[in-house]
């Protein structure tokens, strides 16, 4: 009897090792291919992966294990739970991979927007800004105001006043409008920007 139980225990002992390995793997996947936003750091990816994996094994797996035992009555409850949990961990992994692939074009578009707005600011400052701002072009600071709207500030002689530009990337080449407010992006903190036309 104990040999039979040991055999079942060994066959039904994959869920928690899979949990540990797949949680780390999913954190790396989320870091490389975020499912929301532009990036996911490793710590946030680890927390997100652990949350969904725990949800799978602690909440969904017991119910899935009961359904599995209805089809395979020879399985002990703990083994059915383990099989179901391991399968659900695989489902979570596939879901993260698919979600990252679906979100990838949006990430790539935002990266192209960042490059386009930086090039537009570079050209504008070199051709139209006073020399006091041109020499500080490499210290420009950019914040995203909206999905296709950026505010870039180039510092000048006065550290409290910058040349700030709104750059719209919903057109090609990007549109540029000078912000009459010379307050730096850092001094805004969490406040909303007053975007042009808004």
Task: Describe the 3D structure.
The chain contains 6 helices and 4 strands. It starts with a helix and ends in a 10-residue tail after the last helix. It has a 4-stranded antiparallel sheet with strand order 1-2-3-4. It has helices spanning 2-11, 15-32, 42-71, 77-128, 131-134, 185-188; strands at residues 141-146, 149-155, 162-168, 175-178. Helices cover 60% and strands 12% of the residues. The mean pLDDT is 87. By secondary structure, it is α+β, with helices and mostly antiparallel strands. The longest helix has 52 residues, at 77-128.
Quick structural overview:
With 198 residues, this protein is α+β, with helices and mostly antiparallel strands. It is 60% helix and 12% strand.
State the main characteristics:
alpha+beta; 6 helices; 4-stranded antiparallel beta sheet; 12% strand
Major β-sheet, in short?
A: 4 strands, antiparallel
* Overall number of strands: 4
Distance between the termini: 76 Å
Residue stretches low in confidence (pLDDT < 50, at least 5 long) are: none
Tell the overall outline.
rod-shaped
Strand order of the largest sheet: 1-2-3-4
Q: In percent, how helical is the residue content?
A: 55-70%
Strand content: 5-15%
